[in-house]
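Researcher: Here's the sequence for the chain we discussed earlier.
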Amino acid sequence: METAIKFHREDLESVIASVFGTMMGLEVRPSPEPCPGLDGMLTAAVYLTGEWVGAACVHVEPEQACAFAGHFLGMPSPEAVCDDVRDVMGELANMIAGNLKCTLAPGIRVSIPSVTDGAEYSLRVCRTREVVRAGFDTDAGPCWISLVNAGEPD
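Model: Thanks. This is the structure I predict for it:
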């Protein structure tokens, strides 16, 4: 496994701005607000394999997931998390991972998205370390993105 691959936070910020701007018409601003924790949050994850192995995760509160789904689908926001909301969150994670893979290494493959929501859940990608967790503000609400790597520590 290649350990010389470096991740740059600016790449994440550029990808998030592009995906959110193109798909939802939302301006994205980096936020210093820490993630409030995953309890009650909705988490969409896409796993990456190849020269770089890890996962890209999108964490949002249910209200923000509904707002993002409304923007993404061009319709009023659903009032509660439903299959449409989960599908949109999975697609956002998929687009983020797909764009990030180009910045990491050639030939990286991505999984289909998985979405976890509800109270008292734990999502752990085994044998990984967090490379970055970044918060972002939009007019539709905040979200947090984390990228974890299964490679050797730098």
